[in-house]
Design goal:
The structure is a single chain. With about 300 residues, this protein is an alpha/beta fold. The protein has two domains: about 220 residues, Rossmann fold (3-Layer(aba) Sandwich), CATH 3.40.50.300; about 55 residues, no CATH class. Helices cover about 35% and strands about 30% of the residues. The chain has a six-stranded mixed beta sheet, with helices on both faces. The protein has a four-stranded antiparallel beta sheet with strand order 11-12-10-13, with helices on one face. Strands 2-1-4 form a three-stranded antiparallel beta sheet, covered by helices on one side. Helix 6 links the parallel strand 6 and strand 7. Helix 3 runs parallel beside helix 5. Bound molecules: adenosine-5'-triphosphate (ATP). The site of adenosine-5'-triphosphate has 11 residues, from strand 2 and helix 1.
Length: about 300
């Protein structure tokens, strides 16, 4: 367990006869940002809630730095930071009161710097229910990290956030990571997962389809790199049927070779290059490939 922050083995969660999470296993290293991706109903929240000790697993084991969350919730409370869902706070509590309450619960001084950082300083005496959706989210994040938890669990943290708040949260996450915090991040946002996560697990119907770095997950797919070329003349016209906004478009799994080949044709035919764009397949394409087929291809 030395370098491991979290070890999940054969974990199952059922609701009546329904198997929401079906015997999954994964490990999260200390200081890692671990992304959990999956379509609606895949079992992400059920998994996070069992990590947080809010739900009891129906099979398997969960170990968080040597603690079983279903049995030792008191020991767990200062170790982990959890971004609550909105319903977790009373509607009449003010921003200031919420920070005081959470700090007292964790026995630390109130972190008003986090309130400032989350751009809520002028809302200090405003009630929770009067904050906008994005402001509520930012408050919940400030509360989740007020006690410098070793493990931070975030469920869709940037949903409903505007671009600036999103960037601020990503910066905060990177800072926490550099201080050694382990972060588990469930998200629907592929770009966020690709940018932030060291490794990602893709969950589908309660099972893990793949766990790896974003780069390796993308590379393991059948999607090809898109090459778009704009030229002065028509040297490439016979080589592709796809022309988008005056760009000749090619798909290749050997983009380097393909680009050389196209450059040679342009030169041989006395044509001139105006623009060349090479776009590697995205995590989103790979995610759709995995989740639509229901398995790894
Ligand atoms: N309390 C519950 N009682 C019955 N079924 C539940 C309960 N909680 C979750 N489920 C079911 O378990 C499955 C997994 O739900 P979960 O919320 O874990 O998925 P999710 O991946 O977080 O989905 P989303 O992205 O939509 O939030 C879903 O089919 C859901 O309907």
């Amino acid at each position: 367990m030395s370098n491991l922050a979290i070890k999940v083995s054969n974990f199952t969660k059922t609701y009546g006869d329904f198997i929401a999470v079906d015997g999954i296993s994964f490990e999260v290293n200390k200081g890692e940002i671990f992304g959990i991706l999956g379509p609606n109903g895949a079992g992400k929240t059920s998994t996070l809630e069992c990590l947080e000790g809010l739900r009891i697993p129906d099979g398997g084991t969960i170990d968080i730095m040597g603690i079983d969350p279903s049995k030792n919730s008191k020991e767990l409370k200062n170790l982990i930071g959890v971004q609550l869902q909105s319903s977790g706070l009373p509607s009449t509590i003010t921003v200031k009161e919420a920070m005081q309450l959470f700090s007292a619960y964790h026995n630390v001084q109130p972190r008003y710097d986090l309130i400032k950082r989350m751009d809520l300083w002028d809302k200090l005496n405003i009630q929770y229910s009067q904050l906008s959706g994005g402001q509520q989210k930012r408050l919940l994040i400030a509360l989740a990290v007020c006690h410098n938890p070793q493990i931070l669990i975030l469920d869709e943290p940037t949903a409903a956030l505007d671009v600036e708040s999103r960037v601020e949260l990503h910066t905060l996450m990177k800072e926490l990571k550099s201080q050694g915090t382990t972060i588990v991040l469930a998200t629907h946002d592929m770009a966020e997962a690709e940018k932030m996560a060291d490794r990602i697990a893709i969950l589908l119907k309660g099972k893990i389809m793949i766990i790896d770095t974003p780069k390796k997950i993308v590379a393991s797919g059948s999607s090809k790199t898109k090459i778009s070329v704009r030229t002065v003349g028509t040297s490439l016209v016979d080589l592709t049927d796809i022309v988008v906004d005056e760009y000749y478009v090619f798909y290749s799994d050997k983009p380097g070779t393909k680009v050389m080949e196209l450059m040679n044709v342009i030169e041989e035919k006395g044509d001139s290059l105006i623009d060349l764009r090479v776009e590697r397949p995205s995590l989103e394409e790979r995610f759709l490939e995995i989740t639509s087929i229901g398995g790894i291809q």
